[in-house]
Amino acid sequence: MNKTNIVIIGAGISGLSIAYHLAKQGEKDIVVLDKGYFTNGATGRCGAGVRQQWATKQNCLLAKKSMEFFENAHNILEYDDLELKQEGYLIVATTDDEVKQFKENVKLQNSLGIPTQYLTKQQALEIVPHLNPNAFISATFNQSDGHLNPFKTSEAFYLACKKLGVTFHFYEEVLSIDKKDDGFIITSNKDSYAATKVVNAAGGYAYEVGMMVDVELPVYSENHEILATEPVEKFQGPMVMSFSKNIYCQQVPHGAFLMGRSDPTVKKGHDVQSTATFLKEMSKTIMDLLPKIGELRVVRTWGGSYNLSPDRQPIIGKTNVENYYVACGFSGHGFMLAPMVGLLMSEIMCNKTPSMDVEFLSIDRFKYQTSFDIEKSVV
Amino acid sequence: MNKKDIIICRCEDVDLQQIHDYMDQDFVTFEDLKRLLRVGMGPCQASTCAHLLQKEIANYLQIPISQVKTHKVRPLTIGVPIKAIAGDDHE
Questions:
Q1: What is the distance in angstroms between the Cα of B2 and the nearest Cα belonging to chain A?
Q2: Given this model, what pLDDT does residue A371 score?
Q3: Gap from A230 CA to chain B (nearest CA, Å)
Q4: What is the ipTM score, two decimals?
Q5: Measured between CB atoms, which of A39, A274, A297 is closest to B75?
Q6: Between the CA of residue A335 and those of A48, A297, B10, B30, what are the distances in Å?
Q7: What is A2-45+151-218+311-368's CATH topology?
Q8: What CATH architecture does domain A86-146+220-308 belong to?
Q9: B83·A299 Cβ contact <8 A
Q10: Which domains does chain B have, with CATH numbers?
């Protein structure tokens, strides 16, 4: 039995950021447990995009403050190059409803200090000339959105955590958590820990880790697939995205194109297999919206878990079990929100006044409300 | 021979020195090294480096090669253009 202060379950970007920010607050004896290899979960499987163009105020604010962190992350975390590329997200509208919604989004984002522009078709084509002009009506664009390398960002947090004395154990799966009067006993497949506080940052497995202490989180997981092409000379600056056509597609600094879409018929669960349906539908969508990219070869496809909450916004903070905290339900966007999630969690856990209102992130919002401000800007 | 001059992954230009630097930090599986170094992520999808790396990990850990897992194989086996996958619909 190891005596510790805080055990964090999950070494994905959320667990890493929480560990880092707790250590910065001065917390000692932090242990992070992960059941698999480095970035085995959603973080290492994500589309590597970071954006601030959201349809709800809360997501906009979380994303904006997280981007401010990313812009300085190489200094803060003392890491060479996180491959931050701020060449924007170009989100195309393809229906009249989207045109209306996007105008609302731009108003909201501008009011919060996010400098998104509403673009005509011609203006959008100047930024991404290989867009099919017949496939969309108009677009929104924010230059400061873009790309960030999830592996390098995770490594940067990991190394910064190690410097601050955080301990990591990979390939160590938590099997049970027992609540005692003075804390918790966490039993893994290799060891056991006595801790005063526990954080559930288990990503796709947040529900299961919640049930270990009878905290039933309103989340579930589903498979979202991605493909990568061979690397080529740069010809696309921004991430191109469409909610109605169900696609996001960017060229990463390495040269490869990454693209993903969701499958409306996918079943809930932990399956992360690749499917022929995805490959076919993704290819057809590319031929429609960005036909030039059709020349490139697909070298690899993979899947990863979205952990979905009822309003597609994160659930973070306290639970009804004292000293058991949760950060989950990121609905496919945990990577880009991680800096703020880590900071807010550390403030909540250290009983400090949070840097922004956290009421809307609390699990309690689902108890008292029957209708939610559901985030629509999700692929 | 200098470990920096021994290329393990040709597609992503990863050398043996880089592999050893991460193994020294306790990242001793193909899956860990792949994410930290991009080894095996290029156009050939580890068809060259899988066995080289397996051997290096076995040597490093002083265990039989049969106990070293190789990478998870992901589709496609060989690169196929997107427009060919999309089929006739858009030709």
A1: 25
A2: 76
A3: 6
A4: 0.94
A5: A274
A6: 8, 27, 30, 23
A7: FAD/NAD(P)-binding domain (3.50.50)
A8: 2-Layer Sandwich (3.30)
A9: no
A10: 3-90 (1.10.10)
